[in-house]
Specification:
5-stranded parallel sheet, globular, alpha/beta, 147 residues, single chain
Length: 147
């Protein structure tokens, strides 16, 4: 019985851990993460996704709106995720916290990339221009972050 209680307590700490780190002094936030680098090894992408998750953990999912804008070599994130269960899990976890992953149509067309070549990508995720979207989001009050 003691072991069961210990396991339950450990599970609770794993779940509540991010909540405990939340700092209410951060208030409501909007942030756009800009990804346009090559990281087909997945290391850079995992780091960027970790930054996004740490941001959510600190502020609280209910207190933040996050968009990840990908263009150029940044689309490699969703290309790498097609064959990388770890990246798929991270992306799915972030999407479940309302993080939007926005894809540059100029890059799709210029590099002849189909949405089927990307992990969990949909028509509604495509924006006309990644750089124009970055500017628009900043005009809408999003803080620009380049991991």
């Amino acid at each position: 019985m003691t072991r069961l209680l210990t396991l339950i307590a450990a599970a609770f700490l794993l779940i509540a851990g991010p909540l405990a780190a939340q700092d209410d002094s951060y208030g409501q936030q909007k942030a756009v993460y800009h990804i346009n680098f090559d990281g087909m090894s997945g290391t850079s992408y995992r780091s960027a996704m970790g930054n996004v998750q740490n941001h959510i953990n600190a502020v609280g999912a209910e207190n933040i709106e996050i968009a990840v804008v990908m263009h150029g070599d940044g689309l490699g994130l969703l290309m790498a995720a097609k064959d990388d269960d770890g990246l798929q899990t991270r992306i799915g976890g972030l999407k479940s916290q309302n993080v939007r992953f926005l894809i540059c149509n100029n890059t799709l067309e210029g590099r002849d990339i189909a949405l089927d070549d990307l992990y969990d990508a949909w028509d509604e995720d495509v924006v006309p221009s990644g750089v124009a979207e970055l500017s628009k989001l900043q005009q809408d009050g999003y803080t620009y972050i380049k991991p």
